[in-house]
From TrEMBL:
GO terms for biological process: phosphorus metabolic process. Residues 4-226 form the Polyphosphate kinase-2-related domain. This is ADP/GDP-polyphosphate phosphotransferase. It holds the Pfam family PPK2. InterPro entries: P-loop_NTPase (IPR027417), Polyphosphate_phosphotransfera (IPR016898), PPK2-related (IPR022488), PPK2_PA0141 (IPR022486). GO terms for molecular function: polyphosphate kinase activity. Belongs to the polyphosphate kinase 2 (PPK2) family. Class I subfamily. Uses inorganic polyphosphate (polyP) as a donor to convert GDP to GTP or ADP to ATP. Its EC number is 2.7.4.-. Homotetramer. It comes from Dyella japonica A8. Residues 241-252 have a biased composition (Basic and acidic residues). Signal peptide: none annotated. Residues 226-259 are annotated as: Disordered.
Length: 259
């Protein structure tokens, strides 16, 4: 294990302890936190969300990674299916892509009309103001990656059978739209950046560095969350430790592990 990897793991362990404190503060205070992760394909959104939630209580956070809308959803108010995923008191919801699909991906790929795009860009500041006026803490991150680095990651996914599922037809088609996506991103940020719902851009050409910088920044944006996690002292076990005896009607899975 290299020195950089050891340092990264050490730093991430400290940050995850702070994230656990943040989670504890949310549950105690009843605050609600929404974090939006946007960026180009292969930027590192999924890996960052995994790093954030790795040590969290699974009952207190949710990940919203919505697929293509159904026919019914397509006929609804555009924001409706996203509203269904907003947090309750004490929860954090992490959006792996969000309503901002309509600001970048959909217009770039021809998945929405010009009228739908224009209507969205006019409506989204008011939509987000409703969220923040109701007390939701809303943070929006764009994970920035250069095209050369993005191509390296695509190549890595193409070679690795365990990662090929990440390469969608949209990913492949978006490769020829790097500049157009960048232009749409800039328009999105210019028109939807607000003090109550700001955009933050993170350099993700180095994913480990990007994760650390993003998580540190996220922790700094949330009100006091320095919740200490109380120590737990286990009482002495009564009697001798028991061996687990299972009914013979079930079959044991063979032990195939080799030391």
């Amino acid at each position: 294990m290299g020195k950089k990897t050891k340092t990264y793991r050490h730093v991430m362990a400290e940050l995850q302890l702070e994230l656990a404190g943040l989670h504890r503060w949310l549950r105690r205070s009843g605050h609600r936190l929404v974090v939006v992760f946007e960026g180009r394909d292969a930027a590192g959104k999924g890996g960052t969300i995994k790093a954030i939630t790795e040590s969290m209580d699974t009952r207190g956070y949710r990940i919203a990674a919505l697929g293509k809308p159904s026919e019914t959803e397509s006929s609804q108010w555009y924001f409706q299916r996203y509203v269904d995923h907003l947090p309750s008191a004490g929860e954090i919801v992490l959006f792996d892509r969000s309503w901002y699909n309509r600001a970048v991906i959909e217009p770039a790929m021809g998945f929405c009309s010009k009228a739908q795009y224009k209507a969205f860009m006019s409506a989204v500041p008011a939509f987000e103001k409703l969220l923040t006026d109701d007390g939701i803490i809303l943070l929006k991150y764009w994970l920035a990656v250069d095209q050369e680095e993005q191509e390296d990651r695509f190549e890595d996914r193409a070679k690795d059978p365990l990662k090929r599922w990440k390469l969608s037809p949209v990913d492949m088609a978006s490769r020829d739209k790097y500049e157009e996506i960048g232009h749409l991103r800039d328009l999105m940020i210019e028109r939807t950046h607000r003090p109550s719902a700001p955009w933050f851009v993170v350099d993700y050409n180095d994913q480990k560095r990007g994760r650390v910088n993003l998580i540190r920044h996220l922790l700094e944006q949330v009100p006091r969350h320095d919740e200490s996690i109380p120590e737990t002292k286990l009482p002495k076990l009564k009697g001798k430790p028991k061996t687990e005896h299972v009914t013979r009607k079930a079959e044991w899975v063979p032990d195939t592990w080799e030391d």
